[in-house]
Amino acid sequence: MLNPASGLQQELDVGIAGERITALASTLPRENTKKVLDVRGCYVTPGLIDFHVHSYWGVNPYGFNADPICLASGVTTALDAGSAGPVNFLGFKKLVYEQSRTRMLAFVALAQHGVLNDPGELENLKFADPDGAAQSVSDARNVGVGIKVRLHKKSVGDHGREALRMAVRTGEGCKAPVMVHIGNTGISMEEIVDTLRPGDVVTHCYTPQKPSIVDEKGRLREAVRQAHERGVIFDVGHANGHFDFALVRQAIGDGLLPDIISTDLHGRMGAGNPVVDMPTTLTKFLNLGLSLEQVVAACTTNPARVIGWQDRLGNLEIGREADIAVLQFVDEPTKLRDCVGGEWNVNQRLAARWTIRRGELFQGKG
């Protein structure tokens, strides 16, 4: 068992009854058990949390049916990153949160209808609804966990500065973190990170789109370093345009490891999706020098803490919901890809053998 929240890493049996973890022990009696899962050679971890997806399928242009992919890849909780805004957040609760087997939470968009493709959701700031976004989070704390704003020019035009400040005020109003999409912004990286509060989130933190977190010489910007030191959170948000092996190496080499590892899987990935799934994304960071405990923490206890759900998610503990990932290393030649044409051939990858969500067992895709 590998449980970064408690620092526990040892061989243990895990007992489950109904939807809950009922026992953790070196050996559990097997009489009267309905099913025994042999996980020798695997790592039993808390259910993985994918902090950035777009799961409002059939409604938002970025949405896709994330549920089957999550349950085949060890993900028991996923956070939609702004596909719903105040005017259609009720629909997200009814159509996604209540219907999915994966626990589907959401950052509510500052833009009233959620993130859009063309036109951008905040090209006209009249479509911002800060009061409605704050109210949506405040009224549904079991689903809404924060505020989302995209600052790239296609989404916000020339209004990046106003949208960022409005989002932070909205987060203050509902006492929740703000997730900020960077890459191709009209304002500097220094202004973005200096505006954010401790606990706010920079997503797509390793994007090669300018301005990035590294300067023209490939060095981590000092403002980014200082923001991280005072508690601003840096989330991977891989997607199909925001991950560059060379930039990640530069940033990690300068001391900026990701606080959160997420996929940003969405419905506009197109052919040749470089992300694949969460275990593949974790494999990339294992090959970039992070330990297994570090990558598991970055998709379990760390994201749980950022949204204030550490008492419910990201920990294997008696009495908790039985949300569990069973991960294994597969010896198999694998090509890892970034978003700018970079490729990396490795001989071993991390895979999900099983996912257990609220006590229910799902087969991993291996």
Count the DSSP helices.
11
Terminal-residue CA separation: 19 Å
- The appropriate CATH architecture is Alpha-Beta Barrel
Round the mean pLDDT to the nearest integer and report it.
Answer: 97
Report the sheet with the most strands, covering strand number, pairing sense and barrel closure: 7 strands, parallel
Structural features:
single chain, 366 residues, alpha/beta, TIM Barrel, four-stranded antiparallel β-sheet, 15 strands, globular
What does this structure look like?
By secondary structure, the protein is an alpha/beta fold. The protein is built from eleven helices and 15 strands. The protein has helices at 67-71, 89-97, 130-139, 153-156, 160-174, 189-195, 222-229, 245-253, 278-287, 292-297, 301-306; strands spanning 2-3, 8-9, 13-17, 20-25, 43-46, 48-53, 75-81, 103-109, 144-150, 178-181, 201-203, 233-235, 324-337, 343-357, 360-363. The strands form four sheets. Strands 6-7-8-9-10-11-12 form a seven-stranded parallel β-sheet. A four-stranded antiparallel β-sheet has the order 5-13-14-15, with helices on one face. The longest helix has 15 residues, at 160-174. The chain is globular and about 65 Å long. The mean pLDDT is 97.
Element layout with pairings:
Layout (H helix, E strand, L loop, with lengths): L1 E2 L4 E2 L3 E5 L2 E6 L17 E4 L1 E6 L13 H5 L3 E7 L7 H9 L5 E7 L20 H10 L4 E7 L2 H4 L3 H15 L3 E4 L7 H7 L5 E3 L18 H8 L3 E3 L9 H9 L24 H10 L4 H6 L3 H6 L17 E14 L5 E15 L2 E4 L3
Helix pairs in contact: 3-5
